[in-house]
Amino acid sequence: MSTETRSGYWLVTGAAGMLGQDVLAVLKDAGIEAVGLRRADLDITDPDAVRAAVDGAAVVVNCAAWTDVDGAETAEEAATAVNGTGVRVLAGACAAAGARLLHVSTDYVLPGDASEPYREDAETGPVNAYGRSKLVGERAVAELLPRDGYVVRTAWLYGEHGPNFVATMLKLAAQRDTLDVVDDQHGQPTWSYALARRLVELGLAAQDGKAPGGVYHGTASGRTTWMGLAREAYRLGGLDPERIRPTTSEAFVRPAVRPAFSVLGHDGWSAAGLEPLPDWRSQLAEAITRPAFADLLRLPSER
Fold it and tell me: How far is the C-alpha of 81 from the C-alpha of 64, rounded, in Å?
């Protein structure tokens, strides 16, 4: 990633989160000056604080979000304050400062009732409060930054720096002989570090005037189910995949409805001169060698 002809630093909000930490690591490796702000450092719903933070930044990567999907069902106003109003404040500040905004969104803005991958221009239709709150943010970016706003939807994210499905499955391997895992929800498991690399590539393409603003789908290629992901994680970790048994969503009723089909299309990347993210299996194979996951495979009962 050559940065010789570009100027201005990058600002990463939500820098303490799983994706935020990975974005900062990628920027550091690329030699790009960056500032990371945690929730304690910046309230994105505070217009004055946001304007001051954005001033001087060339690219802002917004990883700040309300991520408690089930909690949003009883606190939709609070979730929307962060995922909607806060994003509007951030987009407005970027517009005033001439900064490009890369905003991380979610597959949950879609209805999840398709049978083919959702295009970037597919009609939205959230089925839960979290999705509705995120859609408010997407619309704010489109309205205030039609050329310099980039909405990157991701899904089924896992990584080294926070709670996630893959880590949970590996931890439970040391505690249970078998696990029942949902096999009727379809999606694209996406490694947060791989997404971070793509976000940085997109931001650099945006600075070069090569990437048009709009919606991009930042998910792995291919598709599987939660059971398929768990079995592949076990296989790669040298565990018996048959310890993972299929079950249905009805066996795990939760406050927020989950989309049954979260497979996204990736046609938008060609406009930016970039390839879609790699297949989910290759991402997982690389991720599982990282210390945070490898250590879980060395738990005493699995040696």
Answer: 12
Q: What's the average model confidence in pLDDT over 149-159? A: 98
Average pLDDT, the chain: 95
Active site residue 130: yes
9-13 and 34-37 strand pairing: parallel
Confidence of residue 299 (pLDDT cuts 50, 70, 90): low
Residue of 129, 133, 150, 44 whose CA lies nearest to 83: 133
Contacts of 173 (CB under 8 A, 6+ apart): 179, 234, 237, 239, 243, 296, 299, 302
Contact 63, 41 (CB under 8 A): no
Measured CA to CA, the distance from residue 223 to residue 266 in angstroms comes to 13
Which entry of 130, 150, 158, 193 is annotated as an active-site residue? 130
Nearest Cα to Cα of residue 120 among 110, 111, 131 = 110
Q: How does DSSP classify residue 124?
A: P
pLDDT score at 303: 34
- Rounded Cα distance, 86 and 72, in Å: 16
CA distance 151 to 258: 21
Strands 224-225 and 186-187: antiparallel
DSSP 172: H
pLDDT value for 3: 45
Q: What is the 3-state secondary structure (H, E, C) of 198-255?
A: HHHHHHHHHHCCCCCCEEEECCCECCEEHHHHHHHHHHHCCCCHHHEEEECHHHCCCC
